[in-house]
Design goal:
The protein is mainly beta. It folds into four domains: 108 residues, Sandwich (Immunoglobulin-like); 102 residues, Immunoglobulin-like, CATH 2.60.40; 103 residues, Immunoglobulins (Immunoglobulin-like), CATH 2.60.40; 97 residues, no CATH class. Helices cover 6% and strands 44% of the residues. The strands form nine sheets. Strands 2, 3, 5, 6, 7, 9 and 10 form a seven-stranded mixed beta sheet that branches. A five-stranded mixed beta sheet has the order 26-32-31-29-30, with no helix packed on it. A four-stranded antiparallel beta sheet has the order 22-21-24-25, with no helix packed on it. A hairpin with a 4-residue loop joins β5 and β6.
Length: 454
């Protein structure tokens, strides 16, 4: 009696051991979940290409690594609510079912001697597609879905059923259609659309831009589609706005050599009247534009003029506004502004030197020296006279300061050199655009000069 009980226990342990060791699996599946109703596994195979044919495989095996097992496969029929045997059985240590092309449930009976067990698995063939629906055959966003302020992107998905059934109650389950939606572009300056199938983009980019929609489902299956937006936007860009130096012979007529030499040593101040150069060649999708110089003057031109000059008569800070428009029918507008500065004459930048060394001739060769002259930031008119300490006039000038080359150390522009010593200058008349917050003091309009020679 005890031996029969022992034999029965050993048989039961053997059956449990085989049950625990036997298994059914799908090594090539992309994902797997546990069925909602119990211990069965749902394995998912993602199609690499939408609607492309594919074949999945599952394997039943026992880990005792012995031959002699009989494997009988069955397929679940939703119409019959039962498993229907697949003709033919296989023997060995494992069995592969490698002809699965559609979503279905499979069952295998594993038999050897007095051991019989049943295992189930659900195979889901997962397929998904996404299409941007408001584009043409050339993948271009259709007319009517964009204007100067926004563009719309419409997309839709196609998802094949991924149902499986409880083989005991025949209840249908859906693993769910959770999607991760992401839009990207090939344009770093473009706004990224919101993560929705139907989305609107504000402030469309000025450059032609590809919008790429990528959708990933809960099983890691990813599909993409794209559309190009051919931009109708304009982009206003003032590439540069530069004060033109008085020594720039391309903007001003050539002057005497003294003028070029003197202004080469100016302090970089921007003197009125001031000429500015505006380069707008960086603007995009430009059909025409308006450039407002900020001083009451503006121009409206076509795109064939991209470099403009403007002279500011008075000092000040001017807001320069460029407004561009793209081609009809939309004529989208964009604008940008820069500041043009023209300096006032102040005590800081209106200076009369108190020491200078003029040039002289040695052995027939002229040795250059200094000129006695003031910087002329926004100075319009000057009447200056220079005297010796005894009252002898040695130099005078009256007129536009840009015509005054300064005192070169000769007596009344003759060939006679003024001797070393102290001289006195008086500016009798002085017209300039002065900074009201920092006016030029009268004491700067007269003073002493120390003349030294080599």
């Amino acid at each position: 009696m005890r031996s029969r009980i022992l034999i029965s226990l050993l048989f039961l342990i053997s059956v449990i051991s085989v049950r625990m060791q036997a298994q059914i699996y799908a090594p090539s599946a992309n994902d797997s979940i546990m069925a909602f109703y119990g211990d069965d596994k749902v394995v998912v195979f993602n199609k690499p290409v939408f609607m492309a044919p594919m074949t999945a495989a599952v394997i039943a095996a026992s880990t005792d690594r012995t031959d002699g097992w009989i494997f009988q496969w069955s397929r679940y029929s939703a119409a019959d609510s039962m498993y229907i045997a697949i003709p033919g059985a296989s023997t060995g240590s494992f069995s592969m079912l490698d002809t699965i092309t559609v979503t279905s449930g499979y069952q295998v009976e594993i038999i050897k001697d007095h051991v019989r067990d049943t295992f189930r698995i659900w195979v889901v063939i997962n397929d998904l597609d996404v299409k941007i629906t408001n584009k043409d055959a050339a993948d271009t966003l259709l007319f009517g879905y964009y204007d100067c302020t926004s563009l719309d992107l419409y997309a839709d998905t196609t998802k094949f059923p991924t149902y499986y059934f409880n083989p005991l109650t025949h209840q249908k389950y859906d693993p769910g259609h959770n999607y991760l939606i992401r839009w990207t572009t090939d344009n770093d300056e473009a706004t990224i659309p919101a993560s929705r199938l139907l989305t609107r983009v504000s402030n469309p980019p000025w450059a032609d831009t590809w919008y790429i929609l990528t959708i990933t489902d809960r099983f890691g299956l990813t599909r993409s589609d794209s559309v190009i937006y051919n931009s109708i936007q304009s982009k206003a860009e003032i590439t540069s706005s530069n004060y033109i130096s008085l020594t720039d012979t391309s903007a001003y007529p050539p002057r005497e050599e003294w003028f070029e030499a003197f202004y080469d040593y100016q302090d970089g101040s921007k003197s009125a009247p001031a000429l500015y150069k505006f380069d707008i060649s960086g603007s995009k999708n430009l059909a025409g534009f308006e450039l407002d110089f900020g001083d009451g003057d503006s121009v409206i031109l076509a795109k064939d003029t991209l470099v403009l000059f403007h002279e500011y008569e008075k000092p000040g800070s001017y807001k320069v506004v460029l407004t561009t428009r793209s081609d009809p029918p939309f004529a989208c507008v964009d604008s940008i502004s820069v500041t043009a500065e023209v300096d006032y004459a102040t005590e800081t930048n209106f200076n009369m030197p108190n020491v200078f060394t003029p040039g002289k001739a040695e052995n027939g060769v002229y040795m250059p020296g200094d000129l006695f002259r003031t910087t002329d930031v926004s100075v319009v008119y000057i009447d200056i006279t220079i005297f010796t300490r005894t009252g002898l006039k040695v130099h005078e000038f009256e007129g536009n300061i840009r015509d005054w080359k300064g005192w070169d150390g000769t007596i009344m522009n003759s060939s006679r050199e003024a001797p070393e010593g102290v001289y006195y200058y008086v500016i009798a008349r002085f017209n300039s655009y002065q900074d009201r917050n920092d006016p030029i003091s009268k004491k700067l309009l007269n003073g002493f000069i120390h003349l030294y020679r080599h």
